Amino acid sequence: MNTDSSTDFPTRLCVEEAQQRVRELCAARVLPAESIAIDTALNRVLAQDVSVPFDLPPFANSAMDGYALRGVDLPVQGERRFAMVGQILAGATHIPAVGEGECAQIMTGAPIPPGADTVVIKEHVRVDSGAVIIAAGEKAGANIRPPGEDYRRGDLALRIGDRLTAARLGVLASCGLARMNVVRRPHVALFVTGDELVPLGQALGTGQIHDSNRHSLAGLLQDAGAQLRLVAHLRDEPETLRRALHEAGEQCDLILSSGGVSAGEADFLPGLIAQLGRVHFWKVRMRPGMPILCGEIGRALVFALPGNPVSSIATFLVFARPALLALQGANDAQRRNWRARLAAPAVKQQERAEFLRATLECRDDGALWATPVRKQGSHMLRGVAEADALIYLPESVRELEPGTVVDIVPLPGLF
Ligand code: AMP
Ligand code: MG
């Protein structure tokens, strides 16, 4: 790590140092909780533990459609006729008791009647003029779901920081819990900078391009649980940038910008962020995305990403996405370490760490294999559009043989 002589913040950190810095910054900034209906809670992060208020299932019930009876009455050989005392549908409130030599027809999920301890599935019985005939070979105690078999009353089902997946919403609903305390979503300002950018629907003039980062970054932000509060295209003009950054620093938890953060004549962001707030680090020894800056303005963390479309996506995935998850206190903020085998040799061009765009396939050996795509330029969206993941080549490696196990960063939505 160096310290720029003209500044007092670290520059040229390695990827791991910069990620560590981001983790430290976010640990102190976890957002407050809010209570929401579980209908709208998919993918939100829990701000409370959840203990199960009663046994699940709450009562003994049948695992199958069949006949409930006493296990001791089952024939050891030959057949036995059982007298049918009634029918129990799921949700039934009138439950007939079952005595010796009797049975009740029962459906999956219906309460086991008093006296019964066994369900014989309907495919195994013959019904003959109101009586039920069962042959030897059935097991006493079969096809009963006892209360508390899934969760016992008091079990800790979910913890603070757990993300509410579809299945976990099902757990909450089974517990009768209609509302939950979840962490508030991060409020984010997205600023795309560059005088060459033209919005969609407007014809391109000389030297102009459409603003693609606004859309790819908005998608990544949404996927990471952010709530976009402000989205704007800003000219490369210091006063415009200053006003927008200051305002966003008062309103938002995080500011994400693209472009204007390198060493070009119109790259005003590093100086402005240092003036308006603080720079935590600028430039990371990685490719693509070296110019990335992390700082703060007002109450907002700032990630100023380089404008090259692939650089902005890679730096988002490596720094901004983990930050957004950490602000939500998510247990999955430190993504599981995904690995794959290299399907082709990889040669690093420079000393800096590299994130190669790659497709993934699961081969017959059960391993994931990663093939770098052909177009690796940081301005080439095709490479990242065709990719499933980024392959991480740390500084310490130069050339890797096919078959080498490498760390990968999956693109959102892959797993
Ligand atoms: P900068 O980081 O501002 O020097 O921009 C680096 C490159 O990324 C230049 O070729 C820009 O034209 C391009 N670029 C910057 N912002 C965007 C954007 N929002 N959409 C597409 N390309 C961009
Ligand atoms: Mg620019």
How would you summarize this macromolecular structure in one to three sentences?
This protein starts with a strand and ends in a 5-residue tail after the last strand.
Structural summary, described in words:
This protein is α/β, with parallel strands linked by helices and 415 residues long. The chain folds into 4 domains: 173 residues, Molybdenum Cofactor Biosythetic Enzyme, Chain A (3-Layer(aba) Sandwich); 49 residues, Molybdopterin biosynthesis moea protein, domain 2, CATH 3.90.105.10; 85 residues, Molybdopterin biosynthesis moea protein, domain 3 (Molybdopterin biosynthesis moeA protein, domain 3), CATH 2.170.190.11; 73 residues, Beta Barrel (Beta-clip), CATH 2.40.340. Helix content is 19%, strand content 33%. The protein is built from 7 helices and 30 strands. The strands form 8 sheets. An 8-stranded mixed sheet has the order 1-2-20-22-23-19-15-18, sandwiched between helices. α1 packs parallel to α6. The model has no long low-confidence stretch (mean pLDDT 96). It binds adenosine monophosphate and magnesium ion. The site of magnesium ion (MG) has 7 residues, from loops. Magnesium ion binds next to loops.
